[in-house]
Automatic annotation (TrEMBL):
UniProtKB keywords: Glycosyltransferase, Transferase
Molecular-function GO terms, alphabetical: UDP-glucosyltransferase activity
UniProt keyword annotation of Signal present: no
Name by which UniProt lists this protein: UDP-glucosyltransferase family protein
Record-linked Pfam families: UDPGT
Source lineage: Eukaryota, Viridiplantae, Streptophyta, Embryophyta, Tracheophyta
Coiled coil: none
Length: 502
């Protein structure tokens, strides 16, 4: 009878989700938690009040639907580290002058989360962001599996290890000479200038990356916002490289947000506070006539680059929406340029500027959108793929140059704007892409022609594959069900071990 009761208890799976404090990390992991809850798993997201504000409406909505999901909120220790500007999320507004205090606060927060986890009597699995390597130790203390979530592509995670192993970039003379990435089923060429700094020379950040990779190897497995028809060729490479299991359960934004209310409540989008004008503007445009331009939550450009983008968009024959993260430097003598530009675009009804957060899902799903200019952040790529949009790739930092290779060289669903230099997220870098190159890339994606039509056709086909992946019998659906089944089986074994005194 006791064994039977443990079998019943094993079915009641409780999983803790711990996102990293950056919007591009938080949203996909929260959506994964929502998927687990959608399938009956008791899901708790542990974060700070400031970060919870990004997604809490979605959680409340799911809870009211009867799904077993909640948020456990901890207070960010801003006062203890004397942060004058209270911020809890890495983005373009994170004050670099107080970065050390910010980091100190996160170390203190780690202890708070660890104490919560160790005090929980009922936790069967920890799913944590790659940037929380310490959770593998906590999971070990609890005798439960840790699943690592990587907000990047499977390809880029494998590429990091291949570069570390083969170091082909050291064999070229110039930073701009091409070399081949060794060990992949598809041929890829890159230049050394497109690689992260920590790959090219020893650094403290390189040591941090090594620690993250070591913790990933010690985890039970990894989950990705991806699907087999997209990155299936690299799943086996990941398993071999890290020696763990690997599940693609994406596109998570498509799966978790199927109602209009889900899309409206996602992230910081507030349709009731001004976005109705945006949607009205979009609805007035012809199908495939608008290019969407966005560079994510962590990127800012210098005034010189903003001016080049503005001139390219104004010269283009297409309407546009541009999500701008403003950083005008008065010393460069361009005060008021963006304001004047926005005024002209409003007057001729050609463009719509959004300052800050944009309701991206609602925008991309609108029939007026015909393409996107993107920094190649993984979440944005997945959201573009699920609606079948061709892309203009403009990678800037992190794993984005790797992601560009999938878009351009493998899937052939976009064109490159020609960016050549990787930069740190908090730096402008020295490269300025000229307006002529930007306008040319937009034209290749948006205008009628053989190349454009083929890209659009391939994008639409991949969109259909994405939709099938999350249906019963699809690859992502099967992966999620398999993972949940395995976690229940591990819990059953653990309970039996306790029962039998093992």
């Amino acid at each position: 009878m006791a064994i039977q009761s443990h079998e019943a208890e094993a079915k009641n799976l409780k999983v803790i989700f711990i996102p990293f404090s950056a919007t591009s990390h938080i949203i996909p992991l929260v959506e994964m938690a929502r998927l687990f809850a959608m399938h009956g798993v008791d899901s708790t997201i542990v974060t700070t009040a400031g970060n919870a504000g990004i997604f809490q409406k979605s959680i409340d909505h799911d809870f009211n639907r009867g799904r077993p999901i909640k948020t456990h909120v901890l207070e960010f220790p801003a006062k203890q580290v004397n942060l004058s500007v209270v911020t809890e999320t890495f983005n373009t507004d994170t004050p670099l002058t107080e970065a050390a205090k910010f980091q100190e606060g996160f170390v203190m927060l780690q202890s708070l989360i660890e104490n919560y986890l160790l005090g929980e009597l009922e936790v069967d699995c920890i799913v944590s962001d790659l940037c929380h390597p310490w959770t593998v130790e906590v999971a070990s203390k609890l005798g439960i599996p840790r699943i690592v979530f990587s907000p990047a592509s499977i390809f880029s995670r494998c590429a990091e290890l291949l570069f570390e192993k083969h170091r082909a970039h050291n064999e070229v003379e110039s930073d701009y000479d091409k070399f081949t990435i060794v060990g992949f089923p598809h041929k890829f060429e890159m230049s050394r200038s497109q690689l992260p700094d920590w790959m090219k020379k020893p650094s403290m950040y390189g040591m941090i990356i090594k620690a993250l990779n070591d913790s990933a190897r010690r985890s039970y497995g990894a989950i990705f916002n991806s699907f087999s028809d997209f990155e299936g060729a690299y799943e086996e490479h990941y398993k071999n490289a890290f020696g763990t299991k690997c599940w693609g359960i994406g596109p998570v934004s498509l799966w978790a947000n199927q109602d209009v209310s889900d899309k409206e409540e996602r992230g910081e989008a507030k349709v009731e506070e001004g976005n109705s004008d945006l949607l009205k503007w979009l609805h007035s445009k012809k199908e495939n006539s608008v290019i969407y331009v966005s560079f994510g939550s962590l990127n800012k450009f210098p005034p010189s680059q903003l001016i080049e983008i503005a001139h390219a968009l104004e010269a283009s024959s297409h309407n546009f929406i541009w999500v701008v993260r403003k950083n005008i430097n008065e010393k460069e003598g361009d005060e008021g340029f963006m304001e004047e530009f926005e005024k002209r675009m409003k007057e001729n009804n050609k463009g719509y500027l959004i300052w800050g957060w944009a309701p991206q899902m609602l925008i991309l799903e609108n029939k007026a959108i015909g393409g996107i200019v993107t920094h190649c952040g993984w979440s944005t790529i997945m959201e573009s793929i699920k609606v079948g949009l061709p892309m203009v790739s403009w990678p800037l930092f992190a794993d984005q140059f790797f992601n560009e290779k999938i878009i351009i060289d493998v899937l052939r669903i976009g064109v490159s704007v020609g960016a050549k230099e990787w930069r740190n997220w908090n730096e402008f870098g020295s490269e300025v892409v000229k307006r002529e190159e930007i306008e040319k890339a937009i034209a290749l994606v948006m205008e009628n022609g053989k190349e454009s039509e083929e890209m659009r056709s391939r994008s639409k086909a991949l969109s259909e594959d994405a939709k099938k992946a999350i249906l019963v019998g699809g690859s992502s659906h099967a992966n999620l069900m398999q993972l949940i089944h395995e976690l229940k089986s591990l819990k059953h074994q653990r309970l039996n071990g306790v029962l039998l005194g093992q």
